[in-house]
Amino acid sequence: FSLGVVVFVLVFVFPKFTDLFARISDQLPGSTKVLMAASDVLINYWWLVIGVLALLVVTGHYWLKTERGVETMDKLKLSVYMIKDIFVQLYLVQSLRVMGLSLGNGVSVMDTLASCRDVVENRLYRRFINQVEAKVQEGEGLAAAFAEAEFIPPAVRQMVSTGEETGNLPRVMSRVAAYYERELDKRLAAFARAVEPMMLIVMGAVVGLIVSSLILPIFKLSRAVS
To answer: Are residues 187 and 92 in contact, defined by beta-carbon separation less than 8 angstroms?
Structure first.
């Protein structure tokens, strides 16, 4: 919506002030000059702007479907601040719930891990599941693989280790999944509350920039006329 307002102002409002501002072109603020140049580009080269945007959208869409694109996005999900915590908790809820239910109903560990790998849509996390499988085949157990994964929270590592030692691993995993499901709901709600004021600040800054870029030159022009 903000972008649409900006485009409207640049295409329909700024051109009406072009001749007026030409009288004091050497005194115009930098923001006004930039917006006037953007207005000129949108009016005279709109076809080029649309073509470039369409090219970027199509290229980005196809890139996200490539091996490198999927790999990059999966890495970002587990590395970007704030976003990382959300996706880690989401993947833990998905995988630990499957593990808890499967192991608790007599499914073998290897079949359980295969099911977890199919549930989570992240290649990095699937590699972690592969590492867990390798550790289990070597006889080291689930806790050893969880302890080596950097993105796994320390509390989860400790709980898995304790559950494996006490023989209550299915129950522990189900409880951890339930806990992180509640935490995920809280984090998403907090994230939404944090995004709303940020959006308002950005919109206010954009409106303030446009208004100041129009009003300040008019004040200078009125003083020059006086």
So the answer is: no
